[in-house]
Amino acid sequence: MTGIFKKVATPVALVAMASMLALTGCSSSGSAGAPSAADSRLQQVIKSGTLKVGVLPDYPPYSSQDASGKIVGYEPDIAAKLASALGVKLEMVNTDGTSRKPVLDSNRVDVDIDAFTATDERAKAVDFTMPYIASGALPLFRKDNPIKSIADLKGKKVSVARGSTNDTLMTKQFPDTTVVRFDTIADAVQAVKSGKVDAVMEGFATVRAAAAKDPSLQVLDGDPISPALISMGVKQGDQVWVNYLNNFIRNLNSSGTNQSLYKKWFNADLPQVISHQ
C-alpha cells in the first residue's frame, strides 16, 4: 500500500500544487472587509474556550463513530491536537459532503477537518489551508460481481456520496456509468453489499478498510485514481485564522506528529507530497 500510494502522490504537478498551497494557504478572498486580528476566529475560539470542528461520522479511517458513538480516527486526532495547541476544549460536529460549507457559513463550526479536498471550484467559496494529507480513489465491489479494470465500470451502477469529489469524478470522467448518489458514505458502501449497485467509488483507505472487514468485498488492484490534496476548510475572509492553521499544520509535520497519526490509522507512511512540504 505504501509503495503504491507514494508512486501516485509524487507527480511534479501535485508537488507543485502542494508548494503553492503551502505558500498561499489557498485563500481565495481578499483583504477588503477581512476581520482584524482582534476579531479573527482565532481570538473568538480562544475567548470562548471551545473549538468546534466539522468531522465526518462515517469515513474510516479518517473519522467514524465507534460502538459507543464516539467519533474516532485520524482527523479527530488532528482536531484534538489543534484544540490542545489552542488551549481550549474540543467539540466535534458531524458533517457530510453537502453540509461542509453551510456549517462554516452559519458559524456552527470554526473549521472543517473532514477530508475536504481543496479543489479550485471549492476554493471560490471556502478558504483552504495548506494540505495535511493526500488521497486518491478506488472502486470497491463484491467478489461475486468482479470488476477487473477501471474500464469495466462502463455500463455499471456505481454509488458515491452526494456532493463529494468522487461524485464529481464519476460524473465527469465516467459518462457511460450510472452514478447512484447517497447522502452518506456508509450508505454508498452498503449499496454495494446489498447488491443495489455494482461498485462504490471512494477513498482508497476507506474501501480497503471495508474490504478487510468483509471477505465478500474486494478493491480493484492498482494505483488510486484522481490523487488530490486534502486541507482544512474555513469561512472566507479570515486570513489570520488561516495563517494560524497553516502554522499548526507545519508544526504537525515537522514534529513528526502527523507521520505518527497517519501511521496509527492508515498503517502506512505519510504521503511524500505532504512529508516533503
Question: Overview of this structure, please?
Answer:
Helices cover 38% and strands 25% of the residues. The chain is an alpha/beta fold and 277 residues long. The chain has two domains: 2-135 and 229-275, D-Maltodextrin-Binding Protein, domain 2, CATH 3.40.190.10; 136-225, Periplasmic binding protein-like II (D-Maltodextrin-Binding Protein, domain 2). Strands 1, 5, 6, 7, 8, 9, 10, 11 and 12 form a nine-stranded mixed beta sheet that branches. The longest helix has 16 residues, at 239-254. It is globular and about 60 Å long.
Kindly list the characteristics that best describe this protein.
single chain; 277 residues; alpha/beta; D-Maltodextrin-Binding Protein, domain 2; 2 domains; nine-stranded mixed sheet; three-stranded antiparallel sheet; 11 helices; 38% helix; 25% strand; globular; disordered N terminus
Strand residue percentage: 25-35%
Q: What is the overall shape? A: globular
Q: What is the number of domains?
A: 2
Structural class estimated from helices and strands = alpha/beta
Summarize the amount of helix as a percent range: 25-40%
CATH hierarchy, class of the largest domain: Alpha Beta
Task: Give Rg in angstroms.
Answer: 18 Å
SSE ordering: HHHEEEEHEHEEEHEHEHEEHHH
Question: What's the mean pLDDT score?
Answer: 88
CATH superfamily of the largest domain: Periplasmic binding protein-like II
Q: How far is the first residue's CA from the last residue's CA?
A: 21 Å
Largest sheet: 9 strands, mixed
The CATH topology name of the largest domain reads D-Maltodextrin-Binding Protein, domain 2
Number of helices: 11
Total strand segments: 12
Low-confidence segments: 1-32
CATH architecture of the largest domain: 3-Layer(aba) Sandwich
